[in-house]
Design a protein that fits this description.
Blueprint: E1 2-9, H1 15-30, E2 35-42, E3 49-56, H2 59-66, H3 69-78, E4 87-91
Antiparallel strand pairs: 1-3, 1-4, 2-3
Helix pairs in contact: 1-3
Length: about 100
């Protein structure tokens, strides 16, 4: 399993637009083949910074998503709203407690 963490910083005037778009596409992303989990976080202090956190069966599934029409559409809509370059990490989960 691959865990993908993406940090995004938005123009404050674009936050509501981003949240509305995420609301419209979140189920499509979550139901994309190979995606098993999706969450959106917002920084408590810098409220224009958001993180997505997703679980993928394999790197190949994430790559398939990143080359899909769905991703291209989401990215084309989201990218103009950024006020800083997004950052992304693909990590392996080592420990999980619940």
């Amino acid at each position: 399993m691959l865990v993908r963490i993406v940090k995004m910083s938005f123009e404050p005037s674009k936050i509501e637009e981003f949240l509305a778009n995420f609301e419209n596409v979140k189920e499509k992303i979550r139901n994309f083949e190979g995606c098993n989990f999706l969450e959106l976080y917002r920084d408590q202090n810098n409220t224009n910074i958001f993180f997505t956190y997703s679980y993928w069966d394999a790197e190949s599934d994430l790559d398939t998503y990143r080359h899909s029409d769905l991703f291209k559409s989401v990215w084309a809509n989201t990218k103009p709203m950024f006020n800083a370059k997004p950052e992304a990490w693909s990590v392996d989960k080592l420990t999980s407690l619940s």
